[in-house]
Amino acid sequence: MLIPDWYARVRNVIGPAAMLSVVLAAISVGFFLWSTDNLDLGIAGLAGVWIISFIAASSIIVPVPGLAAVCVAASPGVGLNPLVIGVVAGSAEALGEMTGYIAGASGRGLLRRNRFYPRLRLLMSRWGGVLLFIGAAVPNPLFDVIGLLAGSVSYPIRKFLPIVFVGKAIKSSAIAYGCLYGVGIVGWVVDAA
Fold first, then answer.
1. Structural domain that includes position 159
2. 98-106 and 143-152 helices cross at what angle (nearest 10)?
3. Predicted model pTM
4. Count of structural domains within the chain
């Protein structure tokens, strides 16, 4: 059965618009809670980690301490499971990175004017999955550029989200475990002194 032409056009507009609406609503709620000091990890727990991680990944211009939230949540005082923290933060960051992806998709014409665009497009078409995974698995501020590039070359979202999720979950879990055991080692050294 053929899909009517009008349905395909509506679907291509409503899907991204709905995704952008959900992202903007979550950013607004999270930013409001954060700016009014109503987002305390001790009280909010994993939901607070998710919101802060989502805002941190979504904001391209405003620096938000997403990794600090992961570290605080894993500290012995809060006592959340570092692996669960990593998965929760990874899911939030993967969804938050959609802002860069959408910006790249909508600004495709601008990016094509860049003289490096043909090389970057070729790089993303050949090594997109590896580039996304490595970029997501290590803490770096340049992942927004990788997300913009992925959106500008129409890298499939069905591949983008799982790859970024796994990479971000690995990164966040490693940071959570590092903070948990790092605080324990520092406490042990201080107690021994």
1. 5-192
2. 40
3. 0.72
4. 1
